[in-house]
Amino acid sequence: MIFLVVEDDPVSATVIREILRPFGESHVANDGATALRFFRESLDGGVSYDCVFLDIMMPDMDGHETLEALRGEEERRNLWGSDAVRVVMVTALGDFENVRMSFREQCDGYLVKPIRRERVFALLRELGLVKESAGETGGSIPSV
Fold this sequence. Notes:
By secondary structure, the chain is an alpha/beta fold. Helices cover 40% and strands 17% of the residues. The chain is built from 5 helices and 5 strands; from the N terminus they run βαβαβαβαβα. Strands 2-1-3-4-5 form a 5-stranded parallel sheet, with helices on both faces. The protein is globular. The C terminus is likely disordered.
């Protein structure tokens, strides 16, 4: 699988990449504009991301704006349902309004920091991206 991690904090980005390492390759964008560029380039190249892990609190273009732009790009390309990328919001914001906004903007999952390996694995299973026992072995990864 190929993941896109959109995170402006380098430590958090590294931790998420390490958690995802057993499942495939991860690219990191440190802001929404870069994420959108990577996303477009991947689609133009015929290889789309399987899942985007998207931080909400970022400067300039926050996670909500980035998610809206990603979904808009998919709409322009007629990518729907199982052809659309899975998007997981990753944030310290667990309040109802941010959760509601994220799902209204068509995110597929929501993780509140600190990010735990087990929760990421469970969410990847829920999204149908990995099998039941995938990734459950290996060393300890710190939480974000």
